[in-house]
Write a structure and sequence with these properties.
heterodimer, A: mainly beta, seven-stranded mixed beta sheet, four-stranded antiparallel beta sheet, about 55% strand, globular, B: mainly beta, five-stranded antiparallel beta sheet, 11 strands
Chain lengths: ~110, ~110
Amino acid sequence: DSGVTQTPKHLITATGQRVTLRCSPRSGDLSVYWYQQSLDQGLQFLIQYYNGEERAKGNILERFSAQQFPDLHSELNLSSLELGDSALYFCASCRGGTDTQYFGPGTRLTVL
Amino acid sequence: GQQLNQSPQSMFIQEGEDVSMNCTSSSIFNTWLWYKQDPGEGPVLLIALYKAGELTSNGRLTAQFGITRKDSFLNISASIPSDVGIYFCAGQLIGDYKLSFGAGTTVTVRA
């Protein structure tokens, strides 16, 4: 158990819908990262927050957004969902900005 | 992100055998990490390497940070059935926040 929690574990929805994925970092960790894992793209970095502020952006679509709240939990919002958004979404956390990252169990999103 | 070339892509091994996989990059990394992912689970950190030339062990696992800072390898000794899974290398550039991942090595153990 990495100490990072993610909910829900599974999510099934339809194209065009909007969903919110939630992540709680390890106790004491200030940084939260979001990654997408699909069969054809592997693990891709989406976005990072540090202590409530956006720190770095990767291959994140404009239809996706994220935020980190004062209690340091983070949410990833995916809107106007397409079939190709079906993937595993992982959250990782670490103490600072560049420390070792620990991953949560992931949310499996299926868009039908 | 940075391109990490991980090989082999997959391997079938006999229980008790030693396994070796590696990652190379055209970029110089500050940190190399090795993760294992079981089906439907998140990547679990196996070994973290922070200095060029560093050799670190975790039980039957040994990993090294290459001298050029552009490569790393992971060895698994005396493989057992629970070693099955996908192993990922990940690298972090100096001052960068994100990890770049290799495509993974799928390990299947023949009993």
